[in-house]
Amino acid sequence: MTHHSVCLTFDFDGVSSWIHSFDSPDSPTELSRGLFGVDVGAPRVLDLLDEYDVESTWFTPGHTIDSFPERAAEVWSRGHDIQHHGWSHTRPRQYESEAAERADIERGVESIVDLTGRRPTGYRSPSWDFSTHTLDILQDLGFEWDSSQMANDFTPYYVRDGWAAPADAPFERGVETDVVEVPVSWQRDDFPAFAFSRERGYADERAIFRQWREQFDWMVDNVDGGVFVLTMHPQVIGQSHRLARLESFVEHVADTPNVAFETVETVVDRFD
Ligand SMILES: [Zn+2]
Predict the structure, then answer these.
(1) 272 residues of the chain, pLDDT tens digit each
(2) What per-residue confidence (pLDDT) applies to 100?
(3) Which helix (H) or strand (E) holds 196?
(4) Which PROSITE patterns does the entry link to (predicted)?
(5) What's the CA-to-centroid distance between 166 and ligand 1, angstroms?
(6) Cβ(119)–Cβ(142) below 8 Å
(7) DSSP notation for 17-86
(8) pLDDT for the residue numbered 20
(9) pLDDT of res. 27
(10) C-alpha 140 – ligand 1 centre gap (Å)
(11) Distance from C-alpha of 242 to C-alpha of 151, rounded to nearest angstrom
(12) What is the distance between the alpha carbons of residues 199 and 139, in angstroms, rounded to a whole number?
């Protein structure tokens, strides 16, 4: 019997993404979308996870921890893992320097240590991208794993270093590091599917949940030891009827033999 994992992951951006990734720090309406996630979405999600006794992973910027310490503490005290998602939620390639990126990541570590008493072992990049310095910084700071890249769909692998992508010569893959990648996909992320942006329209929400279910079923049938990472944001998934659809997905997973809900860290601990 092959064992499969489902990692429900929540990028608990709060207002940080609206300040640093969408450049809208002076828009009270945009900021209020983040406040919805903190004040309304997160408690609803936590209640659903409690009901089904599901452990999950919350990638939480230090900015969220320091701005909303009571809610962040609630996530931790209700049994969920808290891992690194930057301090400021700056996209890595937008830092002015390596030193600025390193300082922000170190600050995020401090926020998590203050909250949980332990250092984070894993990192998820804001907006799922690395600068040319990110991997070095993560290794220097003792991170064991990442969940931001996409070179596989349902199977973890080792992140490579020393690759080269010249425009006029063949691609060089580089060499494996000991940093484990637990891959993500834009296809399994609620934000591009559901969050309103002036650059895209609305999706058929039922179709998105059906797609997640079909992807999960395919993994169970076709991948040994598959790891299904679903990325959600409390400010997006925590809206009204979406919780009911997420509950249906959770029930479907729970009814599938040889599948467990696990934190990303638990998956990484088993990987070698
Ligand atoms: Zn984020």
Answers:
(1) 579 999 999 999 999 999 987 777 788 998 999 999 999 999 999 999 999 999 999 999 999 999 999 999 999 999 999 999 999 999 999 999 999 999 999 999 999 999 999 999 999 999 899 999 999 999 999 999 999 999 999 999 999 999 999 999 999 999 999 999 999 999 999 998 888 877 776 778 899 999 999 999 999 999 999 999 999 999 999 999 999 999 999 999 999 999 999 999 999 999 97
(2) 98
(3) none
(4) NODB (PS51677)
(5) 29
(6) yes
(7) HHHHTS--TT-HHHHHHHHHIIIIIHHHHHHHHHHTT---EEEE-HHHHHHSHHHHHHHHHTT-EEEE--
(8) 80
(9) 87
(10) 23
(11) 29
(12) 36
Tokens 């390639």 sit at which residue? 93
Q: Ligand 1 centroid to 97 CA: how many Å?
A: 21
Ligand 1 centroid to Cα of residue 149, in Å, is 14
The C-alpha atoms of residue 123 and residue 18 are separated, in whole angstroms, by: 20
Extract the tokens encoding 81.
């893992």
Distance 35 CA to ligand 1 centre (A): 14
Q: What is the pLDDT of residue 13?
A: 97
Tokens describing residue 183: 């891959």
- Please state the three-class secondary structure of the chain as a single string: CCCEEEEEEEECCCCHHHHHCCCCCCCHHHHHHHHHHHHHHHHHHHHHHHHCCCCCEEEECHHHHHHCHHHHHHHHHCCCEEEECCCCCCCHHHCCCHHHHHHHHHHHHHHHHHHHCCCCCEECCCCCCCCCCHHHHHHHCCCCEECCCCCCCCCCEEEEECCECCCCCCCECCEEEEEEECCCCHHHEHHHHHCCECCECCCCHHHHHHHHHHHHHHHHHHCCCCEEEEEECHHHHCCCHHHHHHHHHHHHHHCCCCEEECCHHHHHHHCC
Q: 100 C-alpha vs ligand 1 centroid, how far in Å?
A: 18
